[in-house]
Predict the structure.
Amino acid sequence: MPVDYDLVILGGTLEGRIAARAAVGYGARVALVEPPGLFAQRQQASYLLCALQQLADGQRQQAVSSLFYQSAFPQAERQFASQSLGNAALSLNWEAVLEWSRIASETQLPDLALTALGAAGVDVIAAMPEGLSRRLTVTVAQRQLTARAVLAAYGSVPYPIFEAGVGALARPALTGIESLLQAKALPESLWIWGGSPESVMWADALGALGVKVTLVADRLLRYEDSEVRGYVRSQLIISGIQIVTSAEVINRASKSNLQTIAETSLFLERRKPAFVLPDSVQRPVVQYPDAEYPRQGRTYLFSNKYLQLAHPRLFACGSLLHGRAVHRAVAQQEALVAVKNALFWPNQSVDYGLIPEGYGHFARVGVTPKFAQEGSVPYSADRDYRVWTASSSNSTDLSRLSPQPALCKLICKRDKLQSIHLLGDGANELIEPLALMIGRPVNDLLVAVERLPGLPTAQSLSGLVRTAAQKATRSRWQPGNWRRDWAENWFNWRRSR
């Protein structure tokens, strides 16, 4: 049957626009259906977090400067400066911060603007999709778009949603970052619900700016390495952030307190998708049991390894497949693979172990084994695994009052790198070049670190990577290792001749 488009993208996210750009680059006829304002809202939230993190770093450095220069002021002036510094968050020009994030969201990605996509050949339809039939006919703005394939890339932040099979709209309460975008001033206290890296970054940035933050997390950073999780938790507590479970909040709070908590809460854990696909084109939304790795756990849409849904010509990417916010690099890689599978032949899958994920002061690449997540002894699970770590208290760092620990953890299987975990300043920029070492012998990592260009921010952290790699290399020649035994036998035979 003839169709109007080779691919129709139900967008509203960064990965949706990247998919549209990639699809039209193949020469396909593409339509991008995107609800007005949804993409801009998400981009502004991303740049708002970036702004708060930079302001938080500056706030920490000011606190250190005040500590070292306080002897130059009289006692009364020192107290006044201390009080002013502690109340800096209350005097923050919140409207200026929001305006900066809005301008950044509109100017930082000119190649993915709707005008640029339209000029490239994408048929942009700024409207909310109203329906999707079994024959992949998308109903939008009193139009029907027939497609050879459809890609769901609309994300999962609070937004007016369509219930499957129901034409009425339901608008959920603004309980995500969108509520901050509409706030008149930075709140004095916040409850952040969720144990994801996104929740940790928001809690850390807002807490450094003077906001009283309570992080409600039943399982903090559940898919990260247990040692990294412990360090991050300790740093949050040292910085004044209270960490509690949802059961503790419900048991201790009264009805009036719960209402107050709800009014000052940001829910960043699991959110509804912007558009619920009907059951005729996908399997019903169910809770799949958690698997060993994060990308095989609970999902909103169930897909195979080729990112196909129950309908063979319907694909999805991003948070829709994970039931939670995912790293931008993961969503973008899924979008590129899904586009290629939708336009040509579905035979490509995403290798998640090669995608680096950076979350501020901690980052990782590779698949983290379950024993590393739970903190159990690796040899009890699989003797093929070896773990090498190098850490530093970073006590000479004067960018913050409390020392920021630094950690490098290498997990190898049969002497080949399985995953790399970094904690400390510069983890984001250092994890990118190290991602190429996954699946290769650990000795290659040592060579790669020696050849790294100068990274001033990650200089101390790159030294820890070098130390951990040297430990792994030297361990091959320890007594009991076959290489050491072979060498001893060789020299014994030579001496006996």
User: Anything to note?
Assistant: The CA atoms of residues 416 and 441 lie 4 Å apart. The radius of gyration is 25 Å. The first helix runs from residue 14 to 25.
